[in-house]
Amino acid sequence: MTAKNVLGTELVPCSYDPLTGYFRDGCCNTDESDLGSHLICVRVNSDFLVFSAARGNDLSTPRPEHRFAGLKPGDRWCLCANRWREALEAGFAPPVVLESTHLNALEFVTRAQLEKHRFHSALH
Length: 124
What we know:
Elements: E1 38-43, H1 46-54, E2 76-80, H2 81-90, H3 111-116
Antiparallel strand pairs: 1-2
């Protein structure tokens, strides 16, 4: 069965460069082993990266031992749903790519919250 996005259509890849997703398959796919719920495809910006680092999750610093080059503003990334909700509540939610956000994200946030922060791209 093909995964669905929050729009009810087939889940579209989030990013291959940097390679994202819990399974590092470019998509915000998930299963019961994904305890972080890496469900929300975002386009990171500098405000969010600073916010995330301040919360103990530095996404900017390269971690070669984890094959992670570090994120820079404009990169797309499958973000943990609770981290996005935390950023939303603090006023730092990064833009969301709805077509690439897994349907299970709606267990953490509402579609209206996601749509309010929708990233509009010519790529999809």
